[in-house]
Design brief:
Largest sheet: 5 strands, antiparallel
Strand content: 15-25%
Order of helices and strands: HHHEHEEEEEEEEEE
Distance between the termini: 46 Å
Number of helices: 4
Radius of gyration: 18 Å
Structural class: alpha+beta
Helix content: 25-40%
Number of strands: 11
Amino acid sequence: MSNFDGCQLPSIPKFSAGAAETPATLLIGRIKRRFALPWNRSVKKWLKQIYYATMHWQGGSPAQIAARDFAPAIPLQTGDLVRVRSREEIDLTLDPFKELKGCAFLPEMYQYCGTQQRVLKAMQRFMDERDYKLKKVRGVILLQNVICTGTPTFGACDRCCFLFWREEWLEKIEA
């Protein structure tokens, strides 16, 4: 592991007070929570590799082809006013895993479709909390005041993480 001076991330296990109680849910919700980690770490990983290998041999998936049409000519920058594309346009760019170039489009993000937002930052790197590694990214955008409040499977979360948006899902509005 590397030096984390100035970062609170490694201390999270020390200051947490334990696992939070999750609200009572239906059996299907409890099953999803129980199997989320093994599913994402192994089963989904292999399914994705098979899918992307197949698409590579076929010359690209329909989602990748649609995303190319939506890619901006000029990269988005801090302060740019953008319109989040419609649900139909975004769905065209998503693979069967609801992702575009590895970036997931979460169900709670649909509420922003068709709205105008302002770019907070075009990301270049982020800390991946699953393995404590700094990762480089291209084409990922953070929007002002557009944050995650939790997931249907795991419930509410007070952390207020920014949602990651692919630039293909956004359309710059000329002022």
